[in-house]
Each structure stands twice: as C-alpha cells, then as structure tokens.
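A reminder from the course coordinator: this example appears on the midterm review sheet, so study it carefully.

Given structure:
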C-alpha cells in the first residue's frame, strides 16, 4: 500500500472519529426520568463558587436538576441558556425549564428530558437540558422532534464520510481521463 493511501486512510479514520465525537456531544438525546430536586449555583469559568474556589472573573447562575431513572440511576443535569451561541438550540428559557422541573418534582411526575452533552464526574461536566415534558410512565415513547434531529444529524455525518471517500475517486478518474486524452482533445478508447 502506498504512502498516500495510508495517509488518506488515517485522515478518513481521524475525520470519522472526530466528527462522531462532535455529533455525539452536540446532538440531542432523550431520557425518561423522575425529577427529585433542583438548585441554583453561582459559577465562574472554574466551576461553582465556594470558599475553595473564589470568584475570579465574570459569574453567572447555573440551574441544576437532579433526577433518577427507572433503574434507580441518579443523574444530574445543568440547565443553562445557549442563547445565540453554539450549539444553536436558541435556548433562552432556562428559568421556565427550572420551574417545570420544580413543578414535576412537587407533583412526583415522570418527565421526558431532552439534553445534549456528556456527564463526566471528574471534569465536573453536566448534560445541558433543552426541554422537559411530562409523560405517563417510564415506558413512554422517546420519539420526538429531537429524535428526528438526531437521526438527521447522523445521516449528515454518514454523508460527510461518503463525500470524503468519494473525493479521491473523483480525482483519480479525472487524472485518468486527462492521461487518456489526445493532444487534439479526443479520448483514446
């Protein structure tokens, strides 16, 4: 195998893994949970402000929502506006979502939470909630607009990979046609 083929395969693998990681983080996911509590914390770029971590820059309020699923697994979500910035969920209603979460907690209600992101305990990273809707039970369908958006995102990811694979094929075919062309412009058969 030539060096160019090895470089191209390495590029495709890195591109596929890198874009899969980005899509996995930014595309919405759905969880069916029971909300058990919520709170607001003042944070800066280093995390929640406390005696160990005093504020050393601009601060903001971040809502946290505590949940438990049907398997008794506990999960903490953050509820923070995305505003006009990336990722483009145009979320400006974190206070309203916090009120919905508190209402669901008070009513002992099961909810469908749509979120993006990952939960890493060691890095103090939380999934960010996009929306909360009440459901009847843990067996409720998780199909929604966000499910369609997630499938569309993965379809786009696959299309990007196929385009990356098609480019060298198109370049090779064009180079072969030029090599077969005669000086007068006709093609050798």
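Designed residues:
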């Amino acid at each position: 195998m030539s060096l160019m083929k090895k470089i191209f395969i390495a590029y495709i693998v890195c591109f596929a893994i890198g874009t899969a990681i980005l899509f996995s983080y930014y595309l919405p996911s759905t969880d069916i949970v029971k909300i058990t509590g919520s709170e607001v914390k003042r944070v800066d770029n280093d995390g929640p402000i406390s005696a160990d971590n005093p504020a050393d820059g601009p601060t903001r309020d971040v809502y946290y929502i505590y949940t438990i699923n049907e398997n008794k697994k506990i999960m903490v979500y953050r509820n923070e506006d995305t505003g006009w910035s990336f990722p483009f969920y145009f979320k400006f209603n974190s206070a309203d979502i916090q009120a919905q979460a508190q209402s669901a907690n008070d009513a002992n209600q099961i909810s469908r939470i749509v979120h993006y992101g990952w939960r890493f305990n060691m890095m103090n990273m939380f999934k960010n909630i996009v929306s909360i809707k009440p459901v009847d039970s843990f067996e409720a369908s998780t199909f929604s607009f966000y499910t369609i958006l997630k499938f569309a995102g993965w379809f786009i990811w696959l299309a990007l990979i196929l385009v990356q694979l098609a480019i060298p094929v198109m370049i090779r075919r064009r180079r072969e046609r030029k090599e077969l062309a005669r000086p007068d412009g006709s093609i050798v058969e």
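The mean pLDDT is 85. The domain at 29-142 is CATH 2.40.50.110 (OB fold (Dihydrolipoamide Acetyltransferase, E2P)).
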